Amino acid sequence: MNNYAITFKPVNYKVSASEGSTLKDALVKSGLDFDFPCGVIGKCWKCLVKVLSPKIEALQKEVEHLSKNEILEGMHLACLTEIHSNMIVELNMEKNTDYNILQSSVEKNSAIFPLLKKDFIQLNLPSLEHQKSDLSRLKEKLILKNPDYRDLKIGISILQQLPDKLRKSHNKVTVIIDKNEILGIEKGNTSHKMFGIAFDIGTTTVVGYLMDLYSGKELAVSSSLNPQIKFGADVISRTTYANQNDNGLKLLQSTILKLLNELIDDVSKKSNIKRDDIYALTVVGNTCMHHLFLGLTPRYIAAVPYVPVINESIELNASELNLNINPAGRVFALPTIAGFVGADTVAVILATDIDKSKDIKLAVDIGTNGEMVLGSSKKLVSCSTAAGPAFEGAQISSGMRGANGAIDHVCFGESMTYTVIGDEKPRGICGSGLLDIVAGFVKVGLINKRGKLLSPDKFTNPAAENYSNRIITYNDTNAFLMVPASETANGNPILITQNDITSLQLAKGAISAGIKILVEKLEINLDDIKEVLLAGAFGNYMNPHSACTIGLIPKELRSKIKMVGNAAGSGAKLALLSQIEFERADEITNKVTYIELGAQKHFNLEFARGMQF
Amino acid sequence: MNNYAITFKPVNYKVSASEGSTLKDALVKSGLDFDFPCGVIGKCWKCLVKVLSPKIEALQKEVEHLSKNEILEGMHLACLTEIHSNMIVELNMEKNTDYNILQSSVEKNSAIFPLLKKDFIQLNLPSLEHQKSDLSRLKEKLILKNPDYRDLKIGISILQQLPDKLRKSHNKVTVIIDKNEILGIEKGNTSHKMFGIAFDIGTTTVVGYLMDLYSGKELAVSSSLNPQIKFGADVISRTTYANQNDNGLKLLQSTILKLLNELIDDVSKKSNIKRDDIYALTVVGNTCMHHLFLGLTPRYIAAVPYVPVINESIELNASELNLNINPAGRVFALPTIAGFVGADTVAVILATDIDKSKDIKLAVDIGTNGEMVLGSSKKLVSCSTAAGPAFEGAQISSGMRGANGAIDHVCFGESMTYTVIGDEKPRGICGSGLLDIVAGFVKVGLINKRGKLLSPDKFTNPAAENYSNRIITYNDTNAFLMVPASETANGNPILITQNDITSLQLAKGAISAGIKILVEKLEINLDDIKEVLLAGAFGNYMNPHSACTIGLIPKELRSKIKMVGNAAGSGAKLALLSQIEFERADEITNKVTYIELGAQKHFNLEFARGMQF
């Protein structure tokens, strides 16, 4: 049976699909978060996609339902379109997949001192009186630039190319150097061209920032969903996949490497930079993503006592990972702190300088896990809690990611108002929306301390009365009717169930307990914390007021909250631009004391307390 | 914190030690094979050392346990003695360290300090309280052995195997270390198994010596003709082949690598050692052989101004050359001096210690080329002459290699007697035989000063008369009938033609001119030379008396000639057994001044003079 390559734009994600299968099958296989609300074929007309290539004829059913313009544009229903060749398909991102991948990051002034160096030199000619070897003549000029270059090493493959390169370039070459090693030699003067990419590999999304290693400027950004999603949505399920399948680890690794090559391609095209002029990559990610990227088993992270293979930073050749940059290129993976506090957290510390701060600061990065760091230049403690997927919209009855159609902000006043991403009819609720809703419940008295959604006859707060008619019975318990079926995009009502509230309680209980234990370990009071830095996507979209209302962040800290954008990405960029910052990452790892919450006797008590409102 | 230099006698090995650390720490760091049986402090009294400088007071504990004599001699316990200054310490070699003496024709004591190290460790188990990564737990035990191991690097492929290796071996592993890098990790305790091979790659023959890197013992030797001979008999013809054929260089390289793999196989079978227990290879050879082995073009060695690609030593992974030893194995190619003075000459200097000698010595290694080194610890000069293939039996009418059937020694008295290798009927003459024959011609007056073979009517020396009937006419000139056809193995007569004599004259002229110019460059007289060391196969088989008779070696040096066997091979072995010796090789390269004879104005004059008898 023939297989074809189907490329989904604009995320540039490729899947292989078999002859006669549908675009819907390919989309499902891709793991891209494309909704098929109706679940059946040719019914709801929501799975419209634009087929860029090849041109295919509209089916009778499509002609009947689509406008002339849509047909001319090549719009087709994914559930009806059969695959008989390679195809390029554009997804309607505005409608379906406007992933608010956080690309912005806190810019920080830092001396530029890139991880790799380039030196242009002109060698002396050899003569019968000065029969110096090619390498000696190269080194003699390099040593004039830096006496430490005396002990430079050179790999055999570079050395093999040296004599002809010198002679073809009339002894004018540019030498690429990494600390004590010559990585490559280029003909002529290429010393002004050196670019690098900082990668932030998240469980869900991956972002790459192309940087000019001399000016420090960001030239292009490219991001995508992490295609490992098809092997599992979270780190535990991916670890299970790696453990239980032959070549599972290799497959997970090659999947992320393939994406990185696509992002490398994308940023180089966007910025008109040759891939061969990219020499350095830095990589951050949680410990599992970090391990999968390096082909290290995450098996022992996932089980007690949760140990990673490596914490310290590691450098390797890009060619060892088949990453398509300059053959001399190097990959710099930042260090991790523990099995569940990864290189992304190290990068957050790097970007926010908590480790240098006189004041005590708290950094919180909430995703599937919540990672927290508390401290100052004197001492740093960190922990990780299984925040659960509530904030990412998963396991919530009407939950969805922060894409178009998601209710992202809600305000409970005399009446309730909400906003929807993409300004369209709502399809579900994303994490920040859920946070606002539950904060509203607390505010107007729709739930009690333990989080129970009250029946109207149990209301004690008069403000709750405005919402009496929204309390309905669902699966024998109370539920809150957020949006009636008639007002939603798919004709299904959007509810908040008791289970949804419990999911959120578990997440906020874990995080607030984590914060409490860190405060305790540092032997300080909440008042001593001068700043709370919220990093990561959810932290930047959520309403801090709501976070404090429900007790996710202690109320005492409300005025100290500051959003720091994608601080993990910023840290990766800093390390790329400065060897000093990259080395500081290891110092940070050594400095941070990791607190295993599971080993704290009173964690369960704090957790139970933290679940209350 | 202050650091002090600690010198260990009698091996003269220095380490740097920090203020307040103990002599035990310094000894551990040194890697010298000194035992600490008890493992704790001040218990077993086995780690006694003699502190030569400074004088330090005995501790109470030492006073209690040591004899008065021991205290007066400056004996101290290494585990108790703190370092607060530079120190010179004598180790009790008899008791503690089995320093084996190298079995080679060059007698030399050398401490064994192999290029690679193995350390067996048992890791601590991780726990929820101590969630250290696998690599951290590995390093924490290694650092106890040597504080410098803190900065050990590890390659990604080794790291990928680490977690499962640790768990399958119950946390007991042996780590293979090369300076600052972990090369490999093996399950269980394999620390007693570490072997290496020293290769001497000659233009004509290749020898491999399998060595036990701990005992220093030679376990097996294997040798073979260099199969590159099929691409050319000498370095110039092989260089031409490499230059003029597509993939010529690759073919020459793969040819020698294939042979090395066969020799590896052979010595491992002979000694019943697994190839996987071989971790290190050292390689010496002339500069062209060295370049071909490494896949470096010899093109620029062969043309003015004769520059090699690299002079300094280079280390690489055995796997980069597809050499079948342990996957962690490393190759150490010794440095070269110039385009025609190679790593073999460096190894000769290493083995003969000319660079450390107070007396001025001359080392001569005669093969297709004649390489010479003259000097002492103060200054060393070297040169190379195209000796031509006369001494290897090539381009001589009845010439052959030193194999069975070769006339190897000849004595001209009243009659002529000769010996044949293998005691069989002669088939030809090898280099040492030719040397004796021409020396005999000089002695009995068969040739004149210019080397012309005289007709009997021109004889002036009565001793020549005995050989009148052997002077025959061959191709219109005189020739000497060495063995009549009836007495040879193949039924052909063995002759010495005028051309044969001329070939030898060219060789001896070049070598004696080289010696003269070195003596001149060093601004000494021949009398100042205290020893003449003859290295290499020909140097060891030839009769030194004959060499002086024909003026190959100046007559004044006759009593100073010493045979040093395969000193190049000995040097390769030394470098394999001792990192200190390997590093000394680079010092030697930097110390030796290379004299390009072609650039010496009076070389041709000396050469012409040197051709006379």
Please characterize this protein's 3D structure:
Chain A has five domains: 88 residues, Ubiquitin-like (UB roll); 71 residues, Ubiquitin-like (UB roll); 139 residues, Domain of unknown function (DUF4445) (Nucleotidyltransferase, domain 5, 2-Layer Sandwich); 143 residues, Nucleotidyltransferase, domain 5, CATH 3.30.420.40; 114 residues, no CATH class. The first copy, chain A, is 30% helix and 24% strand. In chain A, α6 packs across α7 and α14 crosses α15. The N and C termini of chain A lie far apart (58 Å). About 3% of the residues of chain A have low confidence.
Structure summarized in a few sentences:
The first copy, chain A, has 613 residues and is of the alpha/beta class.
Largest interface: A-B, 48 and 49 residues
Biggest pleated sheet of chain A: 6 strands, mixed
Helix content of chain A: 25-40%
Instruction: Average the pLDDT over all residues of chain A and give the rounded result.
Output: 89
Number of H/I helices of chain A = 16
CATH topology of the largest domain in chain A: Nucleotidyltransferase, domain 5
As residue ranges, the low-confidence spans of chain A are 93-109
CATH secondary-structure class of the largest domain in chain A: Alpha Beta
Which terms summarize this structure?
homodimer; alpha/beta; Ubiquitin-like (UB roll); Nucleotidyltransferase, domain 5; 5 domains; six-stranded mixed beta sheet; 16 helices; 27 strands; globular
SSE topology:
The structure is a homodimer of 613-residue chains.
Chain A: E1 3-9, E2 13-18, H1 23-30, E3 48-53, H2 60-65, H3 68-73, E4 75-77, E5 87-90, E6 117-122, H4 134-145, E7 153-154, H5 156-168, E8 172-178, E9 181-187, E10 195-201, E11 205-212, E12 218-225, H6 235-244, H7 248-271, E13 278-285, H8 287-294, E14 314-317, E15 330-333, H9 343-352, E16 360-366, E17 370-375, E18 380-385, E19 406-412, E20 416-420, E21 428-429, H10 431-444, E22 471-474, E23 477-483, E24 494-497, H11 498-521, E25 529-535, H12 536-541, H13 544-550, E26 561-563, H14 567-577, H15 579-591, E27 592-594, H16 603-611
Parallel strand pairs in A: 1-5, 7-9, 10-13, 13-15, 16-25, 18-27, 19-21, 25-26
Antiparallel strand pairs in A: 1-2, 3-4, 3-5, 6-8, 8-9, 10-11, 11-12, 14-15, 16-17, 17-18, 19-20, 22-23, 23-24
Helix pairs in contact in A: 6-7, 9-14, 9-15, 10-13, 11-16, 14-15
